[in-house]
Specification:
hypothetical protein yedk fold; 37% strand; 5-stranded mixed barrel; globular; alpha+beta
Length: 203
């Protein structure tokens, strides 16, 4: 799973993703957590702040979002919560690192994973627009997870789906709606492009 990540230089997003709109200043965050509001890139090149934890549009209770911070690749085309968003409501969640915890005899130890060139990268995600009983809209997202590469596999049995630049272009293409083609983009990111380091236990 992916339950924590960092975004240390959010202003990079405008340059990396050629964002069309301008938002208020986004503050760096070394410990992005579920239920927080996060900048997300949509298929039309727009940058929107959304809450982490997907709430399906048909849900009766917003609390379901706490259970849907991640979506497994293997069930995207099957589960009602993800089938439609996979075709039409895809997004990229920019990040500069993510955390996983290794269980040891002395307790859980956090590790941070990032790119070996220290560049920003993007998680593949899905989003939804949910309306509360008063009709107020709430935009939420989930991060897709896949089997881990060998590096992340030393710590955890899942990892977030990280897309290459070319894969991000396809993922954000609104004309691409074929599930099989989209699912092919989701795979373990090459471990030789990543680094792992011990993280602070304050995370």
């Amino acid at each position: 799973m992916c339950g924590r990540f960092e975004l240390t230089d959010p202003q990079q997003i405008y340059r990396v993703y050629h964002i069309k709109n301008k938002l208020i200043e986004i503050k760096p965050n070394v410990n992005v957590s579920p239920s927080q509001y996060v900048p997300v890139v949509l298929t039309d090149g727009e940058l929107v702040v959304m809450k982490w934890g997907l709430i399906p549009h048909w849900a009766k209770d917003a609390k379901i979002g706490y259970k849907m911070i991640n979506a497994r690749k293997e069930t995207l085309a099957e589960k009602p919560s993800f089938r439609v968003p996979l075709k039409t409501q895809r997004c990229i969640i920019p990040a500069t690192g993510f955390y996983e915890w290794k269980t040891t005899a002395s307790g859980k130890v956090p590790y941070k994973f990032s790119m070996n060139d220290h560049h920003m990268f993007g998680f593949a995600g899905l989003y939804e627009v949910w309306k509360d009983p008063e009709g107020e809209e709430l935009k939420t997202f989930t991060i897709i997870t896949v089997e881990p590469n060998n590096l992340v596999g030393e710590v955890h049995n899942r990892m977030p789906a990280i897309l290459t630049d070319e894969e991000q272009e396809i993922w954000l293409n609104p004309d691409e709606t074929e599930p099989e083609r989209l699912l092919d983009l989701l795979h373990p990111y090459p471990e030789n492009r990543m680094i792992m380091e011990l993280a602070s236990k304050d995370i």
